[in-house]
Amino acid sequence: MRIKPSSRESGKGGMGRPMDAVSLRRKSAYDRIHFATMALESGAKRVGITPLAMYRRLKKQDLIRGRLFRHYDLLHTQSLDYVAEDIAETLQNREAGK
């Protein structure tokens, strides 16, 4: 028995229709937000703080948009450990004024 891929996996909208531009933007936005959330939580765990504290520190240094969203195309291809280390190190450098 062959299992059909979901519409999300096949790049098509519901009922086998191709995804329109709005659907693609929503998917892209969802993927970026999901990635940033995972990176934030993993970074917080690495630093030993709560995800909320990490969020506040990253936002203050503009690293959510300026790092995670801006460099999504490169970072999302890396391991979660790599991204957590990268964001923790970048945050430490920014807060130290480097």
How many domain units?
1
**Which word captures the global form?**
elongated
What does the largest sheet look like? Answer: none
Average pLDDT = 85
Q: Low-confidence stretches at least 5 residues in length (pLDDT < 50)?
A: 5-10
The number of helical runs is 6
User: What integer value in Å does the Rg equal?
Assistant: 17 Å
Characterise the protein shown here.
There is one protein chain. The chain has one domain. It is an all-alpha fold and 98 residues long. It is built from six helices and no strands. Residues 5-10 have low confidence and may be disordered. The radius of gyration is 17 Å and the shape is elongated.
Which secondary structure elements does this structure contain, and how are they paired or packed?
Layout: H1 7-10, H2 21-47, H3 51-60, H4 63-69, H5 72-75, H6 80-95
Helix pairs in contact: 2-3, 2-6
Key structural traits:
98 residues; mainly alpha; elongated
In short:
The protein is mainly α and 98 residues long. 69% of the residues lie in helices and 0% in strands. Residues 5-10 have low confidence and may be disordered.
